Each structure stands twice: as C-alpha cells, then as structure tokens.
Amino acid sequence: MNPTLWAAGSLMAPLTRFAGGASLRFGPSGTLRAEIEGGGRPDLFLSAAPEHVQALVAAGLGFDPQPLCRNVLALLLAPGVPPTPDCLTDPGLRIATSLPGADPSGDYAMDLFDRLERLHPGHGARLRRTALRLAGGPQAPAAPPGRNHYGWVMEQGLCDAFVTYRSNAVQARRQVPALRILDLPETLSVSAAFAFCRLTDTPETMDWAARLRSPAFRALLREGGFPEA
Predict the structure, then answer these.
(1) Which of 81, 126, 159, 220 reaches 20 to 30 Å from 172, CA-CA?
(2) What whole-number distance in Å separates Cα of residue 47 and Cα of residue 123?
(3) What is the DSSP letter of 184?
(4) Strands (E), 88-149
(5) Rounded to 5 degrees, what are φ and ψ at 177?
(6) How far is CA 119 from the centre of its chain?
(7) What is the 3-state secondary structure (H, E, C) of 4-28?
(8) pLDDT tens for each residue of 93-139
C-alpha cells in the first residue's frame, strides 16, 4: 500500500516527479501541522521548518525526525524592478510574502526584514507592516491548476517583488521567463531548513523515509532550485 505524504508546497515540483504511486497533499507547513494535531494522519510529514516536525514529535504524533534539505530566500522581481537589494528600501514597490505563522516562508521573510531593519532602520519595520500576504493563507489568491503560484501572482500584477524560497522563484521563472531572480547578499541572506518525520511505522513508510534521503531525490531537489540539497 502506497503511503500518504503531506508536504510543504515548495516541495511540489520535485516530489510530484519522484512520488510514483504515493498520495500527495501540499500546503503551508504550519497549516498541515495544525490539521495533523486536529486528527489528520498522513504517513509522512515534510515541513519547510523543523519546528513543526519537532512539535509533532513532542506531542507524540510523529517520530524519527530527519533533516531533508536546505533552501534560501530570494526575491522574485517583476520586469523593470532594479535587480538590487535596494529595491527593499523603495516604499513605492509592493513587496509580497507568504503568511507568517501558517507558512514558514513568511516567517523566514520576517527574519529578512529584521536583518534589513538593522542595516536600514525603518525599512524592515515598514515591510513587516505593509508586505502583502499573497500566499499561504485562506485569503491569498489561488493560481489556476498547473500554474506556479508565485509566477502567476506576479503575472497578474498583484505585486512588484515576492520574497520566497529560491526554489519557488526558479519554478516561477520557468513559467514566466520575464521575471528575474535576485539572490540576496550575505548580510541579508536567510537560510531555511526542511525536515520530515514519520507518523506511521509500516514498511512502506520506512522505505519512503529512506527514499527521501536518496541521491535520486536530492538530484531532483537541486534541479528544482534547492541550493543546498
């Protein structure tokens, strides 16, 4: 029997190619964790932040926590936006993030804004207040099936820059080549740790846990834009 995997939405591209007959569900890690705490029972949970995995293990709902890969934040820019970090200090640009709390990408974006605040007082605090929450929450716009959410949002002109994982930006640019990716300098760089745990103890689940650490899956992660797979 094939296992059920609940995974961070940023893992959709590599997991879909790798999953075979497994049942997949994607969403914001914090939202998926809350559903598991409320009674949902996938076989494996793959999170974009280790604290969600650790919380399930501490509650006795998950076990065998393992690191999966690392990611890094980048800026996905609309055509015409200067591809420099200074764009974050331009109050005229509409900057978007995922919803903090529900989606770790939004939490990591808040870390980026805190770093920006230390370098450019006032600007990080402003972005904490004004950044648009265009992913990861119930009020976020929904991309059509088959479309990368971040590329679609920007193609619709809903924001000028999106703070997201580099892997999301790579996938978005494959669908919307006019977009640009800005890698952040070391002073602003925010790394994201992905982790997973098992929630059932079947041979199939154990086999999948091993497959998630395999060279074949790690190659798909790198191809999908994960810089530290």
Answers:
(1) 126
(2) 30
(3) P
(4) 95-98, 132-135
(5) -60, -20
(6) 25
(7) EEEEEHHHHHHHHHHCCCCEEEEEC
(8) 999 999 999 999 999 999 999 999 999 999 999 999 999 999 998 89
**What is the dihedral sign for C-alpha 126, 128, 133, 134?**
positive
For residue 161, give both structure tokens. 């820059």
| Residue at token pair 């810089």 | 227
Q: Are 158 and 132 in contact (CB under 8 A)?
A: yes
Q: Are strands 191-198 and 44-47 parallel, antiparallel or unpaired?
A: antiparallel
Report CA-CA distances (Å) from 218 to 10, 107, 118, 170, 210: 14, 25, 35, 16, 12
pTM over 0.85: yes
Is-contact 192 35, C-beta < 8 A?
no
Quote the tokens at residue 5.
Answer: 């995997």
